[in-house]
Amino acid sequence: MVWKKCPWEMVVDKAFRAIQNVGGLLLVTEGQAQKPNVMSIGWFTLGIVWRKPVAVVLVRPSRYSFQLLEENPVFTVNVPQETMHREIELCGSYSGRNTDKFALCGFTPRYGEDPTVPMIDECQVSLLCSVVQKTKVEPSTFIAPIVTEFYPRDDFHFVYFGEIKEAWQKEND
Q1: What is the pTM of this model?
Q2: Could you read off the pLDDT of 82-116 as tens digits, one per residue?
Q3: SS3 65
Q4: Is 12 helix (H, G, I), strand (E, B) or coil?
Q5: 137 contact partners, CB below 8 Å, separation of at least 6
Q6: What is residue 72's DSSP assignment?
Q7: Which helix (H) or strand (E) holds 21?
């Protein structure tokens, strides 16, 4: 299998199937220390906003990935292989502040044309995104059951809109 650039629209179905079947996607960030970090994400969407193709991800300020996104507003969203349930679980269970999750999961960083944040070579699809807007989730705008279920500790997300700069998928030689 080799990595090939593709239109971002070609990977939408794979991303949403991975959320349903594997349990999530893998968000990679890399800050000033130039050490990549990966976290599992289950809240994600793709679309067109401001006439730009965007990937939308939610990250809590308590997460190490938040700190790295603030240092370097570029990220990759990686679609795991169908067999990567364990890796999704590990990347959602440990903090990158204390654990090298690339090493823990046996991931290989692979840089595309933009060398600031890697893709995960073991994944099937990767989207390289540059943040064009971020918004802090405002508690007063929710209906009460959402706050009760998803924010019992008042740890509200930031929503990052990342313009999709590159889309890659693995294809047969």
Answers
A1: 0.93
A2: 999 999 999 999 899 999 999 999 999 998 877 88
A3: helix
A4: helix
A5: 58, 156, 157, 158, 159
A6: S
A7: helix 12-21
In three-state secondary structure terms, 136 is strand
Domains of the chain: 2-171 (2.30.110.10)
Q: How far apart are the first and last CA of the chain?
A: 6
Q: Are 41 and 26 in contact (CB under 8 A)?
A: yes
Q: Which residue, among 173, 170, 161, 167, has the nearest Cα to 54 in the 3D structure? A: 161
Phi (first) and psi of residue 3, to 5 degrees: -80, 135
Alpha carbons 24 and 112: distance in angstroms, whole number: 22
Per the document, the length of the chain is: 173
Q: What number of other Cβ atoms are within 10 A of residue 161's Cβ?
A: 20
Q: Distances in Å between the alpha carbon of 160 and those of 6, 8, 59, 135?
A: 23, 18, 8, 7
3-state DSSP of 96-126: CCCCCHHHHHCCCEECCCCCCCCEECCCCEE
3-state secondary structure of 144: helix
Distance from C-alpha of 53 to C-alpha of 70, rounded to nearest angstrom: 21
Neighbour count for residue 16 (Cβ, 10 Å): 15
pLDDT band, residue 139 (cuts 50/70/90): confident
